[in-house]
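Discussion board: Methods & Data

I've been asked by a reviewer to show the raw model output for two of the constructs in my manuscript, not just the figures. I'm not sure how much to include, so I'm pasting the format here to get opinions. Each protein appears as its amino acid sequence followed by a line of discrete structure tokens. Is this the kind of thing reviewers expect to see in a supplement, or should I convert it first? Here is construct A:
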Amino acid sequence: MKYDILHRTRYDYPSPVRDSFNDVRLQPMPIPEQTVDSFLLRVLPAARLTHFKDFYSNWVNHFEIIEPHTYLLIEAQSRVITRPPAPLPVEKLCSFEQMKEAPNIERCYDYLQPSHFVELSPEAWKFALDAIEGVEDAWLAVLALMNAVYTGFKYESKSTHVQTHMRDVLVDRRGVCQDFAHLLIGLCRSLKIPARYVSGYLATEAASATHAWVEVFIPGHGWRGLDPTHNRQLDGTYIKLANGRDYADVSPVSGNYRGTIDHKMEVTVRITPVS
């Protein structure tokens, strides 16, 4: 499937700010599951763009605006072709004994540890064990954990914020896609299953922002995408921007500036299928 994507972020400040330093992770990843036909990033006030790959192989576009300014516009335009692999069957694929070899097969160490928004607490471990009772296969365990998040937690828009921690989601039993991704990651890691956070888009008519999901590493099958918000494996409507330990590694726009802390932010995302 082919998509045109427009992602526009605008900040307005009540008084001039300056010395703005920013990293943007809005360039889709060139991976086997998708081809990036084109990518264009526009910034106003105009600034020189540089780019690099971070530790997790995400493309990062960096710019600096030193002079005073009262607004910042970041506009990314992409064309992407998706070709996801066939879903894995719901059957035994990897024992927990085989899963012990995962760190030796792939760079999985970071995806087995606590991170900024994910903790390996006794509560998470107990929840995970209860969710997989009687399950002896790691892949089937992951599917059981995803189903437990989907059925046991309520999707509630604006019930959390961008800095909400996994532990709060586990207590309040509600959240949005970012929260459910963090929770599933924590549950998987509690069982020694490598899991990482993915930022991207879900190309539906209702798409108005980025989406978040999870990838787990299954020996013999590689990294496989799971969307706990919709309780399913990925298909051709998912477009990947970046991956990391959690949201802190993949924020679409991050940075700092000098001046007022007050600002207004407006985000617009438009995804158009291309025939």
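Construct B, same format:
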Amino acid sequence: MHGIFKDRGIKRVFIIGAGFSAPFGMPLTDKILALVYEIALAQPLEGEQYGQASRLLKELQWYFPTMEITHELIQSGKLQIGVEQFLSYVCAVSAFGENFADGDDLFVCLLRSWIGEAIYKAQCECFLKPIPFQYLSFVQSLRGSMILTFNWDTIIEELLDRAEKSYVFDFHSAFQTEAVPLIKLHGSVDWFSDPHPFNRDWMCHVPISEHNPGIVRAKGKFSQYRNYGCHPLIVVPSYDKINRVKSLGSIWETPWFYLQDELEVVIIGFSMRPDDYHSRAVIYPQLVHGSRKGHLKIKVIDFADNDDYKNEIRKRYDGVENCSFWFEGFSGNVQDFIEN
């Protein structure tokens, strides 16, 4: 596959994580639980004063039986548990439970809906404010680039739409076009399994690509989909994501394909944690071998405000030769670092 990117005019691959969206105002993982609670609280559940938030509370109390967990504590955002730990528990049980939709049980499907609505709501609030300059510069610089993103939000799509720049959700559809390949490795808040049996006018959905005909991109009020058993196709942040990524069709069939060429790789806000096995297994070895062979040039953009954390980030890239670091996050003059 060596040379296929060059033949299509792609010289740069961006690998994007939560740290890309954070300066825009989007919440990081540690804020998700409180946001999800607010969405669940607004959904009625017969006989429950706190609506579907009561279901969330009961699940938390079950998996953390030695802790005193209350509605007030969750809502305050001060609950001292790891969100990934909690989601890992519920996803582990889901893998062996009922198949309510997309291989998940009912509670994980509800979580996907709550997370999707929380992320979309936060994103809409962000776009009510002036768009930070670095995002406008980023969108204007994407010619000859491909994006691999682990984020669920649609910030990049919205920015590209506003700039009247085309994009596609698979690599091959960009051939002989100006479209930016946008590969969403953890799904998207506006992606759903094709709800054809419940085809309603308000759904306004289209397939994300001909290579993934079972996945549609939806418009409109996403909460309505839940009433028809449809839940956003997003990979929740548990430790073991393998069962979840399988629901995304061909997106993960050949992930090693994306870094096999003469490329500049710019990693923005993606932590490359050692315990993130499925993404690290795909990306890290390629960075090491590709940089040693001389056909990959690596740049890392992350936020670190002290030497200890800077050293921790550098350690995650041990073995990657000629790796450059920018520790001010996706802010300020970051575009100068990307271009130089």
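Answer (T.O., handling editor elsewhere):
This is acceptable in a supplement if you add a one-line summary per construct. For B, something like: The chain has two domains: 4-26+128-339, 29-112.
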